[in-house]
């Protein structure tokens, strides 16, 4: 996760540097003189706008889209929780679901204590694969 953030920050910094470098360059003719200022400023402006659009597209695919996908998967998991499922809370508490209501879940921990949590406090279900890793 941290690598993705660093990668996206590096890409953003690279794009900004490229935009600044391109904006400061003025196209020249074959004899070395500058072209008209209005044509070069329009061209620089269009290049800059293009890079800004590219920047937003990259940020969408690197940050917003994966976060939405994780959120949809979590919502689907929350809707599928039922009595008897083993879950992990966001605080790291393992337990078995005893009761599910519209806005809360009651879980029973190993000591026999029952605790009530809001649904958003459930981080994940414990599956056979998750249990084997531990």
Task: Give a nutshell description of this structure.
This protein has 134 residues and is of the alpha+beta class. The chain contains three helices and five strands.
What do you see in this structure?
It is a single chain. The chain is α+β, with helices and mostly antiparallel strands. It has two domains: 2-76; 81-133, SH3 type barrels. It contains three helices and five strands. Strands 4-3-2-1-5 form a five-stranded antiparallel β-sheet, covered by helices on one side. Helix 1 runs antiparallel to helix 2 (37-80). The protein is rod-shaped and about 75 Å long. The mean pLDDT is 81.
Poorly predicted segments: none
Helix and strand composition category? alpha+beta
Principal-axes shape call: rod-shaped
Query: Over all CA atoms, what is the radius of gyration?
Result: 26 Å
Number of discrete domains: 2
Feature tags:
134 residues, alpha+beta, SH3 type barrels, 2 domains, five-stranded antiparallel beta sheet
Write the layout of secondary structure elements.
Blueprint lengths: L1 H23 L12 H44 L5 E4 L4 E7 L3 E5 L5 E5 L3 E4 L2 H6 L1
Antiparallel strand pairs: 1-2, 1-5, 2-3, 3-4
Helix pairs in contact: 1-2
């Amino acid at each position: 996760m941290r690598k993705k953030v660093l990668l996206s920050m590096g890409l953003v910094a690279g794009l900004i540097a490229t935009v600044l470098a391109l904006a400061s360059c003025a196209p020249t003719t074959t004899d070395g003189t500058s072209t008209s200022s209005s044509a070069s400023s329009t061209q620089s402006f269009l290049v800059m706008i293009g890079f800004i659009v590219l920047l937003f597209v990259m940020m969408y695919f690197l940050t917003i889209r994966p976060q939405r996908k994780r959120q949809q998967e979590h919502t689907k998991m929350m809707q599928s929780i039922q009595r008897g499922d083993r879950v992990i809370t966001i605080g790291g508490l393992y337990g078995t679901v005893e009761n599910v209501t519209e806005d809360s879940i009651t879980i029973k921990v190993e000591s026999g204590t029952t605790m009530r949590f809001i649904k958003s406090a459930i981080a994940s279900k414990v599956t056979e694969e998750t249990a084997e890793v531990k």
